[in-house]
């Protein structure tokens, strides 16, 4: 049986480094799906949880969905900001990441207090079904690696399962378009430009905030969107 960690456990740094190693290995094998060179920083992760920390009604529990949990840095920020009654669904298709996430729920002190209200789904987020509703969706999906149609399908899915008044927060990396303009094949540059237009469309329609996070590798934009009440 795995030993339970305490929050001051010196092994935590070792575990973070191991997560970074796992992430980088998976990124090398499946870059299109993983879409990053390193797990998100705690600064980016905390900024993504804005609508879990800032609540319209502090007495109403939230149902939270995280798409693309990876090795769990954003999941950790979500778990530590959850309050009584909140529920948390993580969706991640990569089996190795899912094993890691289940391990966190069993032994990590940031996760064990919410483990009975948290579920890890090994799936693509759009395969989760439309019978659930969420108050907050935090998306880590690498839209810049997807086609315009894939981004549209995912955005439509998010706005189907999001409750009216609910929030979607997601991020993208700064300067990727400029870098791709120089180094990527023209077809890939055009694909990214087209998927970026779809993202812009949704941000223009529903955006309520954006912020830049420089303490991340690479630096990132965060976008916050809100589903209208009617
Ligand atoms: C950029 S990484 C982000 C990982 C983590 N949230 C972080 O911030 O470090 C993207 C993650 O999305 C997952 N992913 C890719 N396509 C997905 C999809 N359609 N549904 C759910 N997760 C997906 C990948 O396996 C990967 O773990």
Automatic annotation (TrEMBL):
Alphabetized UniProt keyword annotations: Methyltransferase, Transferase
Record-linked Gene3D superfamilies: Vaccinia Virus protein VP39 (3.40.50.150)
GO molecular function: methyltransferase activity
Source superkingdom: Bacteria
Keyword Transferase: yes
GO annotation (BP), single: methylation
Domain Methyltransferase per the UniProt entry, residue ranges: 64-166
InterPro entries the record matches: Methyltransf_25, SAM-dependent_MTases_sf
SUPFAM superfamilies recorded: S-adenosyl-L-methionine-dependent methyltransferases
Keyword Magnesium applies: no
Descriptive protein name: Phospholipid N-methyltransferase
């Amino acid at each position: 049986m795995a030993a339970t960690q305490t929050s001051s456990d010196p092994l935590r740094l070792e575990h973070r480094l191991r997560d970074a190693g796992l992430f980088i290995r998976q990124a090398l094998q499946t870059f299109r799906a993983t879409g990053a060179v390193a797990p998100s920083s705690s600064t980016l992760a905390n900024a993504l949880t804005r609508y879990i920390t800032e609540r319209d009604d502090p007495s109403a529990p939230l149902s939270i969905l995280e798409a693309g949990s990876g090795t769990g840095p954003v999941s950790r920020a979500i778990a530590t900001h959850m309050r009584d009654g909140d529920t948390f669904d993580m969706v991640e298709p990569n089996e190795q990441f899912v094993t890691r996430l289940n391990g966190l729920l069993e032994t990590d002190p940031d996760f064990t207090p919410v483990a009975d209200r948290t579920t890890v789904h090994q799936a693509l987020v759009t395969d989760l079904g439309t019978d659930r509703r969420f108050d907050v969706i935090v998306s880590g999906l690498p839209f810049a690696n997807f086609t315009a149609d894939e981004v549209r399908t995912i955005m439509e899915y998010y706005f189907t399962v999001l409750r009216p008044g609910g929030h979607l927060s997601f991020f993208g990396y700064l300067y990727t378009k400029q870098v791709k303009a120089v180094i990527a094949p023209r077809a890939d540059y055009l694909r990214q430009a087209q998927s970026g237009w779809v993202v812009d469309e949704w941000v223009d329609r529903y955006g309520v905030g954006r912020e830049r996070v420089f303490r991340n590798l690479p630096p990132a934009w965060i976008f916050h969107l809100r589903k209208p009440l009617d």
